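Q: Structure tokens for this one, please.
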Amino acid sequence: MTSVRTVGALVGSLRRNSYSGRIAQALADLAAPALRFDTVEIGDLPLYNQDLETDTPPPAWVAFRQRIRAVDAVLFVTPEYNRSVPGGLKNALDVGSRPSGQSVWDGKPGAVVSVSPGALGAFGANHHLRQALVYLNVPTMQQPEAYLGGAAKLWDGGGLVSDRREFLQRFLTSFGAWIEATRRR
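A: Here is the predicted structure, written as tokens:
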């Protein structure tokens, strides 16, 4: 029997009721009981500044690092800003990677879902994020890739449209298997 794995979900958009936030919630709702989602807020993190990395770093940094350390895997759900990741998400990566040699990301299985109102599904943000995750040693699931374009049309009166719901369920099944395979290494 597979044990329950806690997934820290980081949403790149800080906007209330954002498409990325809605997809993160849909993933949490669709997840099998073996995956428990815990949304880790990033909006209140002070910008990373090494001068603040003292014996008493900002409390928000400490709490964030503790939350990420406590999860078994990480899921990044992001929009695209100027063909890259939003600044808040990049800041969260930086905060979690410091101080040097104490990164909370190291070896934690991950996956990326990118969301866009446009047709490309935030392809640029997805791949820029993957570049950073390689450096941070986050073994990131390669397939299936998740680029969700046409974000405004992902929901209908009954919730998430059925073809997207089916795709996200397959994505979650693969992610659960990826977490188990990566953690066994």
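A few notes: The radius of gyration is 16 Å. The first strand starts at residue 5 and ends at 11.
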